[in-house]
Structures are given as C-alpha cells and as structure tokens.
Amino acid sequence: MKKIVLTTSMSGLGGTENATFRLGRLLRQRGHEVVLASSDGPLIKEAQALGIQWRPIDFYQGGILGYIKGMFAYMKMLKQEKPDIIHCQMARIVPACAIAAKISSPKTKVFYHARGLDAETYPKIAKLFDKLGVYIIGNCRHEQEKLIRHGFPANRITYTYNALHKADYVPEKTAKDYVMLGTLSRLDTVRAVHVMLDIFKKMVDRNMPVRLNVAGIGEEMDNLKAQAKRLGIDDKVTFLGGVRDLTGYFKDVDILVNTPHCIGDHGAGVGNNILEAGLYDTPVVTYNMGGISEMVITGETGYCFPFGEDEAFIEAVDQLIKQPELREKMGKALHKHVETLCSDDEIYRTTMAAYDM
C-alpha cells in the first residue's frame, strides 16, 4: 500500500474539487493512506469522515508571498509524512510541490493531473514540468496526446478518466408535458451557459416544448439571469444554484445540454457533467471540448458537434424530444460506455499503473 498526498484547492464544489474527493475516496477504500493537502472547503469534512487526513495548506491566498509560505508549509508536511506519491490536481502548485519534494522527500514521485490549461501555456508547462522531473496524468486521451505534441516525454505521461460520483439509484424520469433540458457546470465564460441561453431562445421561438434547468454557481450567475430576462425566456429557465443531489437533478432532466467555448488547445477532459449524465441514463447534446467526443459518440451515446453549430445542436435536441425511446436508448448506451471506461476498478487500475511509471 502507498501513502499518497493529494494536493489542490478545495475551496468550492467544482470539477477539480469533486474529482479530487472521489479519487481520494477510491484510494482510501482500496487501503491506501491518503493525505489531502489543500485549502478548506465544503468537501473537507466528508473527506475526513472517510479516513482521509487533511493538512490545511493553501497556495492560492496572499499572492506570491502566500505561495512561498505554502511551499514552506508543504516542505514541513513532507518531512513528517514521507509519502510515496504527491498527486497535484492543479498546474500552479506543481513547481512548489516538486521543489519541496526534492528538498524534503527526494524519493517521493510527483504527479500533475492535467485538467486543461490556456492554449498558450502548454509549451511552457511541458518544458518546465519535464525539467522538474514531474510525471503527468491526463484526464483523457486527448489531453495526453496534446502534452506529448507540445514536447512532454511520452514515457512520463499517461491518462485516466475522473473517478465517478456514487449514484444512489437511477430514477425514472419525471412525467411532464414538456422536455426538461439541463446544464450542469460552473457558471463562467468557458462553460459558456450564455451560449446555451441563446440557443434555448431559438428553441422557444420555434415552439419546441422545452424548459431549462441551470445548475451551478459562478461569477456569471447574475449576467445569465439578466440575459434570460432580456431574451424573454426567464419564465422557462430555472437557476438552481449549486447542486449536490444529482439523483434529484437527473430525475427531472431529460437531456443534458453542454455548450463549452473551448477551441483548439483550450480546455481538456470529458467533464464530470458528461460522466454524471451517463450514470443517470441521460443522453447528452454537446459542443466538443477536449475529450468529450471520447464519451459522447454522435448517434450512439448522444450528439457531439464543433462549437458554433447551433442548427445541428437544435436539430439533435428536437430529435430527442420527438423520440422518447431514442432518449432512453442513448441514455443507457452512455451509461454503459461511461461505466466501462470509468468504473472504480478501471480508474484504480489506470491510476496505479500511472504511479508505477
């Protein structure tokens, strides 16, 4: 068994925080000693209840001085813990963690879990992390290939998908005389829910029997509410805020819609929302980003289009509205595909294989 230090920010309920929590839970269940070195946040108590040790180290407060302070606290922690693995969940903290490990625990292997960067950052990260001797785990095959293309050594990088949410059960969809569309993401400009609101307006204007649930929190919340009102669709759009009860959310949502604005090397991964939709037998209509097309296979598990293809997006939703049996078929197909690639056994196998690189 290994001692593993997961290092990140845990300040919110976003994809990285949830993915870190789920990975820690899985590693702990398989008998490993897991330490979470992070800022405080809403998932910390749950992590501690699972037997995960928490070390309050925050690299994200106080600018450069706060970063240096965090590095010294990390060095002190490493001298005490002497872990086998440091698994960083964010890029910014990697240099501090790698330097701290070289000084305080030189036998410890340092990993960066690549979850997406600004496009112009990839060449810099590939070069710097190579020099630091860091290993990389991409959160999809696309992310692995991207970093290799930018010069990172192929023998020090692999990929594994995110560990999954534990579904209580798969509920029957709520019967209603309309189809509920749903978004599930952080409300920021990259996730681009504002694009979905514009598309939804076109659907409403075409008298498609749809409503929209917007789940998530973020800096764009007020702008999105104002946009919905300006477009005259606020009576058909409900802002749910942060959602923890995914079973209840997907009981009401018939189709997950997803419109991230990520072109070229921007963005990475599949997105927890896509994986969660699969767990709850819910088909997905989405713009492509990173590795989404590795899960959402057009015509089989949903529909995946290049960014900006609004008409194709609307047509796909319309097909699913008119054919409830197709919704059910695609939802179950996505469930099977997600479970095959993201089961606990598969995530554990690929993570352990990565640690043994």
TrEMBL record:
<feature type="domain" description="Glycosyltransferase subfamily 4-like N-terminal">
    <location>
        <begin position="14"/>
        <end position="163"/>
    </location>
</feature>
<dbReference type="InterPro" id="IPR001296">
    <property type="entry name" value="Glyco_trans_1"/>
</dbReference>
<protein>
    <submittedName>
        <fullName>Glycosyl transferase</fullName>
    </submittedName>
</protein>
<keyword id="KW-0808">Transferase</keyword>
<dbReference type="GO" id="GO:0016757">
    <property type="term" value="F:glycosyltransferase activity"/>
</dbReference>
<dbReference type="Pfam" id="PF13439">
    <property type="entry name" value="Glyco_transf_4"/>
</dbReference>
<feature type="domain" description="Glycosyl transferase family 1">
    <location>
        <begin position="175"/>
        <end position="333"/>
    </location>
</feature>
<dbReference type="InterPro" id="IPR028098">
    <property type="entry name" value="Glyco_trans_4-like_N"/>
</dbReference>
<dbReference type="Pfam" id="PF00534">
    <property type="entry name" value="Glycos_transf_1"/>
</dbReference>
